[in-house]
């Protein structure tokens, strides 16, 4: 039976309530406390805590400490990790390939960037549930169609990045990294793959916008992709 990184079977998601709880966390950009989850899902806090413990153990949920500086003991908060719900788990393969790429190339970031770009050019952005978009009606770049970036944002949303386009269209905020643990260990490879993916996706669109750099983890759970427009240079 397929197992998670902890060796627990994927049967952990056979529980309807756990699957429902995991879906709730995936729909929220911010980590939630037990009390917040219990309120939203209509379940007793102790029951929620038990389900969360199982999801943390299986690798589907991450438990962190909320360090907001409020009085009292810091809260424990929970967020989805991006681990797949299906039986297939490619984490080991991703670890192996990332480590090999980092060790076998003098400039792994450049190779990773090219790999992400090539993949995106061969697999054009597809339709997906629309991401959260900031208003763009009056702040777009000169001559830029208001929906030119939408296919790219849809692609990022489908991949689990929870993207948000800034009102001035200069930045894409990535609110959730589905490869968080891997990126934290080897950002030079993983984050450059993501930048290449965005660059290739933009190259597939009728747009003068380019993604020039990615700043990983500027805040916990937030990465920034810088956009520039050739028409404005």
TrEMBL record:
Transmembrane segments: none annotated. CDD domains: HTH_ARSR. Gene3D superfamilies: Winged helix-like DNA-binding domain superfamily/Winged helix DNA-binding domain. GO terms for molecular function: DNA binding. GO terms for biological process: regulation of DNA-templated transcription. Residues 61-83, 122-146 are annotated as: Disordered. This is HTH domain-containing protein. It comes from Pengzhenrongella frigida.
């Amino acid at each position: 039976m397929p197992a998670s990184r902890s060796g627990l079977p994927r049967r952990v998601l056979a529980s309807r309530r756990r699957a429902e709880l995991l879906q709730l966390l995936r729909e929220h950009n911010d980590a939630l406390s037990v009390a917040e989850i219990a309120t939203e899902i209509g379940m007793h806090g102790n029951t929620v805590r038990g389900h969360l413990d199982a999801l943390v153990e299986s690798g589907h949920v991450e438990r962190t400490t909320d360090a907001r500086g409020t009085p009292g003991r810091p809260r424990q908060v929970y967020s989805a990790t991006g681990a797949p719900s299906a039986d297939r788990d490619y984490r080991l393969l991703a670890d192996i390939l990332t480590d090999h790429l980092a060790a076998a190339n003098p400039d792994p970031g450049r190779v990773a960037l090219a790999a992400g770009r090539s993949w995106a050019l061969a697999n054009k952005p597809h339709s997906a549930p629309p991401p959260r978009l900031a208003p763009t009606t009056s702040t777009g770049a000169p001559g830029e169609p208001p929906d030119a970036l939408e296919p790219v944002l849809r692609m990022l949303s489908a991949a689990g990045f929870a993207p948000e386009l800034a009102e001035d269209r200069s930045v894409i905020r990535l609110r959730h990294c589905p490869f968080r643990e891997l990126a934290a260990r080897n950002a030079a490879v993983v984050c450059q793959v993501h930048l290449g993916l965005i660059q290739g996706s933009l190259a597939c669109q009728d747009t003068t916008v380019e993604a020039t750099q990615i700043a990983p983890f500027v805040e916990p759970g937030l990465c920034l992709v810088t956009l520039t427009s050739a028409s404005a240079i």
